[in-house]
Amino acid sequence: MTAPHPVLQPYDVLIIGSGMSGMVCAATLSREGMNVCLIEKNPVFGGCLQSFRRHGVQIDTGVHYVGALGEGQIMRQILHYNKVLPHLHLRQMDQNGFETLHMEGKTYLHPMGYERQQETFSQYFPQHKDEIRRLLDTLHTIGNKLSLENFRQGIIDDNDRTYMQLSAAGFLEQTISDPLLRDIYSSSATIIAGEHDSTPLYHYAMVRHSNIIGAYRFEDGSQHIANAYLQTIQSQGGTTLSNTPVTSICVSNGLVTGVETSSGEFLPARNIISTLHPVETFRLLEQTPLVRKAYLTRLKSLQNSSGLFSLYLLMKPNSFPYLNTVHFLFEDRKTWIRRPTGKTPELPTSLMLSTQAHHDSPYTRLVCLMKLMDYSELLPWEQTIVEHRGESYLEFKHLHQEQMINQAENYFPGLKKSIQAVYTSTPLTYRDYIASPQGGAFGINTDSRFLLGTLISPRTRIPNLFLSGQSLSLSGILGTSVTALLTCSNLIGEKYLAQKIANE
Ligand SMILES: Cc1cc2nc3c(=O)[nH]c(=O)nc-3n(C[C@H](O)[C@H](O)[C@H](O)COP(=O)(O)OP(=O)(O)OC[C@H]3O[C@@H](n4cnc5c(N)ncnc54)[C@H](O)[C@@H]3O)c2cc1C
Question: 499 C-alpha to center of ligand 1: Å?
Fold first, then answer.
């Protein structure tokens, strides 16, 4: 235990981690009059919102497109309530196809809007109109659980776990009889690192629904979301500290009292919200009888989501068009991660290709290619740190890089010759930059079969320590924002907060 600093007044709420969830918590609670402090270990705020700059181009690392951003939709309303919306440059994606799927030599468009989805897919698969209707109705029902209407009634989470206890892949198998149509609707599993046996229908449906109703991109990179949030938090009196790794969460008499940072400073707080991976949070927490060893062992045993290998292709100016859709390039029909007992996991080999939107050009300077990558592939370099992983790691990355560029070139002839420079990141990059164990892209996997054991609550056994972040059920920008609101509800009340957001 560390004694509180004699001079500093305790913050009402200290928030650890400045990703989307930390930003939403800090902006929400400071708006409600609380004295908040947002702490980030890295020099730049934003977590997965962070961009890095090369040759004058902002390169996004963890946001390609986000759903529910249309007028009157929930993500837009949260950004509005947090006073960041006017600072963002949103671009609606192609209504005729926000996603374009290439499978077995054919191209399928996922249009925006339920009616268009029904029409388009009924044309692709005329014999399966009724099944398509049933699927879309279910997506709509589930997606509507996160809606302005529910917020108006004071509900952020209706606590109905029915759809979390069903597996997404299982539901698709029961609902769609045509295997190709099923695979097409499963293709987005790759953007949530979907697991065949365990990813809940709720998670899959929330991502699909939010994109069907309102898929948007952020022009000029996602860093400006983080910057807009910082401005709001600071203008509401909040303190924001970057370059400040938390090294210990201090406990006294069954309550958290503040955090110690890497410089040895103690920052006192009445409440703490940690948005870090729960294993990280409890690693930092001083020992207390309130948190049992068995609980920690269970937490550590939970499966993390698969990681991603990302290629950032910096394109020569005016050489490659901006594409207002996300392309999924499938060499086979594998869409879900499968984990046969005793064997290495089988991951889809498909690529996602996404271009960055710039407000002033019909061309893009950044093409991002991504694919799922299992952590086991990186074990030879597990003990290494950023920039010091050795020649063999560079060769490993180069091999994947070449294979991915060649795969993309097959669909976009001329892509190669437009490339000016290539940057890469692997799950190890994420492990080291944002402290995500095993470099999981989306935190802990919620398992529809063991919901009680894998769905983590924002409350902990310590009454003034709360959790938030992508490991608590929903990931993604929408998912973490909603989870952040649920965490804040514990301090200011769900009904009050939901209605305030809805009526903003
Ligand atoms: C490659 C990739 C692409 C993605 N694409 C999309 C997309 O297109 N659309 C979408 O909606 N979602 C996407 N996601 C998911 C989305 O980005 C994440 O779910 C979300 O941003 C996670 O937010 P978070 O706040 O939970 O965590 P993070 O963003 O990881 O934030 C956690 C923060 O805590 C900080 N931290 C860690 N340890 C400490 C410490 N000891 N002290 C202080 N700070 C600490 C980290 O540095 C980090 O800034 C993508 C993710 C990845 C990896």
Answer: 27
- Which one of 63, 227, 404 would you pick to mutate in the ligand 1 pocket, going by the greatest count of ligand atoms within 8 A of its CB? 63
How far apart (Å, rounded) are the C-alpha atoms in residues 302 and 295? 11
Task: Give dist(CA 108, CA 19) in Å, integer.
Answer: 34
Predicted local confidence at residue 7, as pLDDT: 56
CA distance 25 to 486: 9
Distance CA 476, CA 62 (A): 9
Interatomic CA distance for residues 163 and 18, integer angstroms: 30
CB 474 within 8 A of CB 483: yes
Distance 97 CA to ligand 1 centre (A): 27
DSSP state of 162: G
Single-letter amino acid code for the residue at 483: T
Q: Report, as ranges of residue numbers, the positions in the chain whose pLDDT lies below 50.
A: 1-5
Query: What DSSP state is assigned to residue 62?
Result: S
Q: Six-digit token pair at 264? A: 């040895």
Q: pLDDT per residue over 418-440, tens digit each?
A: 999 999 999 999 999 999 999 99
Q: Whose alpha carbon is nearest atom 18 of ligand 1?
A: 476
109 sits in which H/E element: strand 106-110
Which residues have any ligand 1 atom within 6 Å of their CB? 16-22, 39-42, 47-48, 62-66, 245-246, 275-276, 280, 308, 310, 370, 430, 434-435, 441-442, 469-470, 475-477, 480
Give the three-state DSSP class for 399.
helix
Atom of ligand 1 nearest to the CA of 433: 47
pLDDT score at 191: 87
Q: Which atom of ligand 1 is nearest to the CA of 308?
A: 1
Q: What are the tokens at 374?
A: 């299992």
Cα(312)–Cα(180) distance, integer angstroms: 31
19 CA distance to ligand 1 middle (Å): 5
Q: What CA–CA distances, in Å, run from 347 to 180, 195, 332, 378?
A: 18, 9, 11, 15
d(CA 30, CA 235): 9
**CA–CA dist 130, 112 (Å, integer):** 19
